[in-house]
Amino acid sequence: MALDLSNYDEEQVKLMAEECIVIDENDKVTGHDSKKNCHLMENINKDLLHRAFSVFLFSSEGKLLLQQRADEKITFPGYWTNTCCSHPLYRPEELEEEGQQGVRFAARRKLEHELGINPEQISLDEFTYLTRIHYKAPSDGTWGEHEIDYILFLQKDVSFEPVPNEVQATRWVTQDELRELMATADAQGLKITPWFKLIVENFIYPWWDKLDNLDTSQQDKIHHM
Asked: Which residue intervals define the domain Nudix hydrolase in the entry (predicted)?
């Protein structure tokens, strides 16, 4: 039986038709499938895996931009997370693997779509690719994530205007403020996305300390988590 999406936001339902890049556990492309199918737990439980990315945007003074996902989002609505999280699509410019060009292109596209950041403000080589994580996480009984997630850092002062259907709030944080946020989220009734938790708990602070010398932190591997 086809899943009835009539109760979800119309704009978010349209995005569910996008074609994600389907991969194996070694991040090799095996095909493509709709965003909807890639995020249904019934398929995730059969090990359907897709490619994704997470952007961490830092200001020139070293603060990290967080976003709270809009309540209209179908997966993880209302959750706090890193600056931008999404998927490269199954199209030539976003399938390009040399130098992570496809992922970088997709990241710039989604920064505009979610946060209104004009692509002219960012060149692809300004993203620093750090590593990949492979994780699986349910959103609710119907939806979830199963991704190999490319981690991209970007330090640059840019102008932005969040798109309400995508992002309901933003916040700049220091390292200490992020530690406090993560430690008190439950008490404050704040929800944190599982991929952001994984990255914060396992990686972010040593990288954050080296924003001016990230080349030494790059790891060309997949962390299966």
From this structure: 48-198
Catalytic residues: 85, 147
Question: Phi then psi for 30, rounded to 5 degrees?
Answer: -115, -5
Strands 80-81, 144-155: pairing is unpaired
Closest to 107 (Cα-Cα) out of 149, 65, 44, 70: 149
- Residue 1: the pLDDT is 45
Please give the CATH superfamily to which domain 10-224 belongs.
Nucleoside Triphosphate Pyrophosphohydrolase (3.90.79.10)
How far, in Å, CA of 186 to CA of 176, rounded?
17
Give me the residue spans of the domains in the chain. 10-224
Q: For every residue of the chain, which 3-state class applies, written as one string?
A: CCCCCCCCCHHHHHHCCCEEEEECCCCCEEEEEEHHHHCEHHHHCCCCCEEEEEEEEECCCCCEEEEEECCCCCCCCCCEECCEEECCECCHHHHCCHHHHHHHHHHHHHHHHHHCCCHHHCCHHHCEEEEEEEEEEECCCCEEEEEEEEEEEEECCCCCCCCCCCEEEEEEECHHHHHHHHHHHHHHCCCECHHHHHHHHHCHHHHHCCCCCHHHHCCCCEEEC
Neighbour tally for 104: CB within 10 Å: 25
pLDDT tens by residue, 159-200: 999 999 999 999 999 999 999 999 999 999 999 999 999 999
Report the alpha-carbon distance of residue 90 to residue 99 in Å, rounded. 17
Give me the percent of the chain exceeding a pLDDT of 90: 94
